[in-house]
Amino acid sequence: MAGKLLLFDFRCTECALLDCVLVQSEVTTRPCETCGGDSIRLIPTPRIDPRLGIDPAFSTMSDKWARKHEQARHLDEAREREHGPDNWGHEGGNVGR
Ligand SMILES: [Zn+2]
After folding, report:
1. What is the Rg, in whole angstroms, of the alpha carbon atoms belonging to the chain?
2. How much distance in Å is there from the Cα of 10 to the middle of ligand 1?
3. pLDDT truncated to tens, each residue of the chain (97 aa)?
């Protein structure tokens, strides 16, 4: 099962850079692209409620994370809109004549 690439978030322990990269599922650390320090894999968090009272720095971080993922989703949607949904083969029953 080696070689399967998954999308994970990594955070640098030196410069706190947050990066979202495709790595093999067993990879938990990687060199930071900015400073060369240790970047460690973050545990995928489903959703963090800022009202839970975690310290502000952390909520900023998760906000940044969420925005990044939101962006990726918008990209996907935009791509879908451009190229149409994946069902051009069968035009359903709404061909009007
Ligand atoms: Zn770094």
Report:
1. 19
2. 10
3. 566 888 899 999 999 999 999 999 899 999 999 999 999 999 765 565 666 665 555 556 667 777 777 888 888 888 888 877 666 565 556 655 6
